[in-house]
């Protein structure tokens, strides 16, 4: 098992492991995947295969971009991008299109 332990003040605080191994542990414990994880991995309603804004942080990290890099490329502040990633703000269609273009996602226009 590939586990990364994150320490704070010399004490273990978090354990990070690959998603597949986490799923195996959940399955062995007889527990379903967390609702938030399954929602984030789902696609937009009625549009199979299209990721939603709930996946924004995952998509950004998958491209190897920091919040600041993506925000600057889109033309917004890193703070505003953080609020979008947390679901605290809904960006307008122009920002959704810019995010989609920078992340290689199709169809984040007016229909979201």
Structural commentary:
- The protein has 112 residues and is mainly alpha-helical.
- The protein contains six helices and two strands.
- It has a two-stranded antiparallel sheet.
- A hairpin with a 2-residue loop joins strand 1 and strand 2 (11-16).
- The protein is globular and about 45 Å long.
- The model is unreliable at 36-48 (pLDDT under 50).
- String of helices and strands: EEHHHHHH
Distance, first to last CA = 39 Å
Instruction: Walk across the major sheet and give the strand order.
Output: 1-2
Q: Largest sheet at a glance?
A: 2 strands, antiparallel
Radius of gyration: 16 Å
Task: Describe this structure in a few short sentences.
The protein has helices spanning 19-28, 35-41, 56-62, 67-74, 78-85, 93-103, and strands spanning 4-8, 11-16.
Set out the fold topology.
Blueprint: E1 4-8, E2 11-16, H1 19-28, H2 35-41, H3 56-62, H4 67-74, H5 78-85, H6 93-103
Antiparallel strand pairs: 1-2
Helix pairs in contact: 4-5
Looking at this protein, list some descriptive labels.
single chain; 112 residues; mainly alpha; two-stranded antiparallel ribbon; 2 strands; 10% strand; globular
């Amino acid at each position: 098992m590939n586990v990364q332990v994150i320490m704070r003040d010399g004490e273990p605080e978090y354990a990070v492991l690959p998603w597949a191994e986490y799923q195996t542990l959940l399955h062995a414990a007889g527990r379903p995947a967390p609702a938030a994880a399954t929602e984030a991995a789902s696609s937009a309603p009625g549009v199979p295969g299209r990721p939603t804004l709930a996946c924004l942080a995952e998509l950004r990290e998958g491209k190897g971009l920091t919040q600041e890099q993506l925000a600057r490329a889109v033309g917004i502040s890193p703070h505003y991008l953080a609020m979008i990633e947390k679901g605290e703000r809904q960006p307008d269609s122009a920002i959704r299109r810019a995010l989609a273009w920078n992340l290689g996602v199709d169809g984040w226009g007016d229909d979201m």
